[in-house]
């Protein structure tokens, strides 16, 4: 049995680094901007990962006013507070967040088709 034990390869987890909760100096806090498809051509843009020190309702109010769309702030148990906007507003939101000085360009991830 000892020969068999030495021949069996040990399990390797390729995602161990991603799942680790170490806050190293190189880790960045990203703001994720996603699009979700609804019915037909309708879509929803979600913004997650903003720092908790910002007022989500004030940011939402400015976004709605600038882009002429409706939106809401949703509390998610896993993701925290998420801003939802009607329509495909990914590029508009990213430029707004950069110009307002809320996030840097390197810390924004845009997802979607």
Report on the structure:
With 113 residues, the chain is of the alpha+beta class. The protein has a single domain (29-110), classed as SUI1-like domain (Translation Initiation Factor Eif1, 2-Layer Sandwich). It is 28% helix and 26% strand. The chain is built from four helices and five strands, in the order H-H-E-E-H-E-E-H-E. Strands 3-4-2-1-5 form a five-stranded mixed sheet, with helices on one face. A hairpin with a 3-residue loop joins strand 3 (71-76) and strand 4. It is globular, with a radius of gyration of 20 Å. The N and C termini lie far apart (53 Å). The model is unreliable at 22-27 (pLDDT under 50). Residues 1-10 have a biased composition (Polar residues). InterPro entries: SUI1, SUI1_dom_sf, SUI1_euk. Residues 16-25 have a biased composition (Low complexity).
CATH hierarchy, class: Alpha Beta
Kindly report the name of the CATH homologous superfamily: SUI1-like domain
Low-confidence stretches: 22-27
Mean pLDDT: 84
Number of alpha- plus pi-helical segments = 4
Identify the strand order in the major beta sheet. 3-4-2-1-5
Family: Belongs to the SUI1 family.
Keywords: Protein biosynthesis, Translation regulation
Biased composition (Low complexity): 16-25
Protein name: Protein translation factor SUI1 homolog 1
What is the gist of this entry?
It is built from four helices and five strands; from the N terminus they run ααββαββαβ. The protein has 113 residues and is an alpha+beta fold. The protein has a single domain (29-110), classed as 2-Layer Sandwich (Translation Initiation Factor Eif1).
């Amino acid at each position: 049995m000892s020969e068999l034990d030495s021949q069996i390869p040990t399990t390797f987890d390729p995602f161990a680094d991603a799942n680790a909760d170490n806050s190293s100096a190189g880790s960045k806090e990203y703001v994720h901007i996603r699009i979700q498809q609804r019915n037909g051509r309708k879509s929803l843009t979600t913004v997650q990962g903003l720092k908790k020190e910002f007022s989500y309702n004030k940011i939402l109010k400015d976004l709605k006013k600038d882009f002429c769309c409706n939106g809401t702030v949703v509390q998610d148990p896993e993701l925290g507070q998420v801003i939802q906007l009607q329509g495909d507003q990914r590029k508009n939101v990213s430029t707004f967040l950069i110009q307002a000085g809320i996030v840097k360009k390197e810390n924004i991830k845009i997802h979607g088709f």
